[in-house]
């Protein structure tokens, strides 16, 4: 819903098969999963995470429980996990922190959007759901908002460049068809 962010995404989407830019709410996209650029504790009280918490009433509890059970209470920036939203669509939320603490203002030279995007893409590429199914088979479309561009204060152009770099890194190793 942020025009400068949409323009920045458009500037890097060209030539990247499978990437589409949507102007509007991330929740308007037909997708199996949405990305939460939350904090390492899994609190979902600000920015797009607050929107998710309202749309999916139990998702913050799911994220916090998974962070505690799988990561000792802190999901590091550069890691991601997937939890159910409790809704039929999107069925999944991928938590990929862009900041360690809630409300943290990120420095101009941060690489956190890159690390978060890379974590999401790597999880999709090689992760599995609790029932053993590969994430790639259960999730075909992932709706990704700006990473760190709201509360974190990352410039839209910085975010877009870093997400594109993560995309290129992760998918450059896939065989071309």
Automatic annotation (TrEMBL):
Residues 6-177 form the Macro domain. PROSITE patterns: MACRO. InterPro entries: Macro_dom, Macro_dom-like. It comes from the Bacteria. This is Tail protein. It comes from Saccharothrix coeruleofusca.
